[in-house]
Design brief:
Length: 569
RNA sequence: CGGGGAGUAGCGUAAUUGGCUAUCGCGCCUGCUUUGGGAGCAGGAGGCUGCAGGUUCAAGUCCUGUCUCCCCGACCA
């Protein structure tokens, strides 16, 4: 490929609305262009890199017995009604109507589609297990698209779905997929971590997220030296030691205009750890209370999944005063004005002689004891994990945090979809059973962004060898020179013949511009052919990651051999 | 959706209290000179100042509406 023919308009400056390094570099290097918020055009250079990632994933999926299919991008409403997700998915689901006013959605994921396909054809245990996967554009009307293609409204995802006779077989296959995902991350050159995660709108019993470690990542990972890792949304919290002090008599104390735990704690000179904080939530419109230790925060993701509700918001002040009988800041579990469901976080259970709101303006209660002074409906782990918390796995280690980019997510779905969509098979006894499912998603476009996020310098992108849009760039300093041209073409032929993607910068530009563009585009290996070196029979060879100091002089055939060796061709 | 900021050429930007033909750099085109880390000179093309109204002798600038984009909080590959 000649650079002069390549549609790769590079920019010296990034558009002012590009927010992270990967987005800036992708735009500057001519990989992508922005059309609207969260919508991007892929130019040849961007598409080449995308296809490389796609092929790595494809190879791993095929190696794990996956079979590639293509499902539609548009699905009829009826399938989504069957699983209930027409409503659950909410505003994030792009919806549209056809000319007959029939309703459809643009697929944000394809559990419905693939389950519908399989239930029509898979009727016997003899046909199981099977794994189907596809590469398809996914649509999600994100509340706030940002970070270039990292969180776009339209993106390329590989989604795979496996079907099994029982949980045990799913478990076996899930491990295989887990390994395939690990392989993909390794082949992409990621520093990554697979962590336990919350399943969100996809559902199922258990899931893992594959996180690329990066400070710019949107996700927060709680991890321990023992190897434990979880998304903080999911990370289990250890229970606190029970306080066995003698139970004192409950009393009311005046706390004028002091509502927050911090202020009241200071005013009464009692540690926030002795407080039971009462949060009033609206779960799908139904008011309910969550009790939690004063110095902890409610993890709303945990709460939402515990309740199984679609919408969860903190109650407004009006609702709070209607329910508790007091303004915001004085809610407590003892004698609330209205009876509502009360859920206690595990942290609230073991506090003796606690401080709570009195459900009365300007008053709190001291020496409140659970089961004596108030009752609760259920208890669960509902709090946010904190740095230095005890590790839930090894119990001894301390939790630390790291940031990550979620590039893949694997789920054990179980029978969630087969049940609602009635996907069954006949077992060896002729008995009908629900098919057990797994689901495996990986963001192809996001991998591209994550790669750049993790591998760049002040001059531009530094592609890993196997994702680069071109593996080699040949820069003839003066392409008009006959000898230079001859050597350039020879190297190009030798490398191309082995299946490598090679770019020749044939432009009539100064050497500096060619070097800058090559660096910006991040092409891993560069061969510079200049007349002076050529007089001695040499060309220059340099790896992008090495910088100027890494330049080596060698014979053209040696440079070719070096590259073929690196690519094992 | 709530709160904060911004829309001027492909990109980055300037324009005093409202005032003359809307500024500059990069990029683009032509020519000459250059030619190993974003060259120099000369010439040139490119704008409905987001859009629609309004105020005014006069609007990029002020007012109203609207759209878009970005940032901060709730979603997810």
């Amino acid at each position: 490929m000649f650079f002069s023919k390549l549609y790769a308009p590079t920019l010296r400056e990034a558009p002012s609305d590009a927010d992270i390094i990967s987005a800036k570099l992708m735009i500057r290097s001519g990989m992508i262009r922005k059309v609207a918020s969260g919508l991007y055009e892929f130019l040849p250079l961007g598409l080449r890199a995308l296809r490389k990632v796609e092929n790595i994933i494809r190879e791993e999926m095929n190696a794990a017995d996956g079979q590639e299919v293509v499902l539609p991008l548009i699905f009829p409403k009826e399938l989504w009604i069957e699983t209930g997700r027409w409503n659950v998915y909410g505003k994030e689901l792009f919806r549209l109507k056809d000319r007959k006013d029939a309703e459809f959605c643009l697929a944000p994921t394809a559990e419905e589609g693939v389950t519908d396909l399989v239930r029509k054809d898979i009727k016997s245990y003899k046909h199981l297990p099977i794994m189907l996967y596809q590469f398809g554009t996914k649509f999600r009307d994100e509340i706030r698209p940002r970070f270039g293609i990292m969180r776009a409204r339209e993106f390329l995802m590989k989604d795979g779905y496996s079907f099994h006779v029982d949980e045990a077989d799913l478990e076996r296959y899930y491990k295989k997929m887990f390994q395939a995902y690990t392989n993909i991350c390794e082949r992409c050159g990621f520093k990554f971590r697979a962590v336990e995660a919350a399943a969100g709108a996809i559902g199922g019993s258990f899931s893992h997220e594959f996180m690329v470690l990066a400070d710019t990542g949107e996700e927060e990972i709680a991890h321990c030296e023992c190897g434990y890792g979880a998304n903080t949304e999911k990370a289990e919290c250890m229970t606190c030691e029970p306080d066995t002090s003698e139970k004192l008599e409950m009393e009311e104390v005046l706390t004028p205009n002091i509502g927050t735990v911090e202020e009241v704690a200071k005013f009464l000179d009692i540690s926030p750890k002795k407080f039971i904080k009462t949060m009033i939530y609206l779960a799908d419109g139904q008011p309910m209370a969550v009790l939690i230790r004063g110095d902890f925060e409610v993890n709303e993701i945990k709460l939402q999944s515990f309740l199984g509700c679609i919408e969860l918001v903190l109650a407004d002040e009006k609702t709070i005063s209607e329910i508790t009988g007091a303004p915001l800041g004085f809610a407590g579990p003892v004698s609330m004005k209205k009876k509502i469901k009360v859920i206690a976080d595990l942290s609230a259970l073991n506090i003796a002689n606690a401080v709570t709101g009195a459900n009365k303006k300007d008053y709190h209660l001291k020496n409140v004891n659970i089961n004596r002074d108030f009752k609760y409906d259920t208890a669960a782990d509902l709090r946010k994990i904190l740095k230095d918390d005890a590790c839930p796995k090894c119990k001894n280690g301390k939790i630390d945090f790291a940031r990550g980019i979620e590039i893949g997510h694997t789920f054990k779905l179980g029978t969630k979809y087969s049940e609602s969509m009635n996907a069954t098979y006949l077992d060896t006894n002729g008995k009908e059973n629900l098919i057990v499912m797994g689901c495996y998603g990986i963001g192809v476009t996001r991998i591209l962004a994550a790669t750049i996020e993790q591998s760049n310098d002040e001059n531009g992108i530094i592609w890993p060898d196997n994702i680069a849009p071109f593996e080699v760039i040949i820069i003839p300093v003066n392409f008009a020179d006959e000898k230079t041209k001859e050597v350039t073409e020879k190297i190009y032929k030798d490398l191309s013949a082995k299946g490598l993607d090679v770019l020749i910068d044939d432009r009539d530009e100064r050497a500096g511009i060619k070097f800058k563009d090559a660096d910006l585009m991040g092409i891993p290996y560069r061969i510079v052919i200049g007349e002076k070196n050529l007089a001695n029979g040499n060309v220059e060879f340099k790896a992008r990651k090495d910088g100027k100091e890494g330049i080596k002089l060698m014979k053209p055939e040696e440079a070719v051999a070096e590259i073929l060796k690196i690519y094992k061709k």
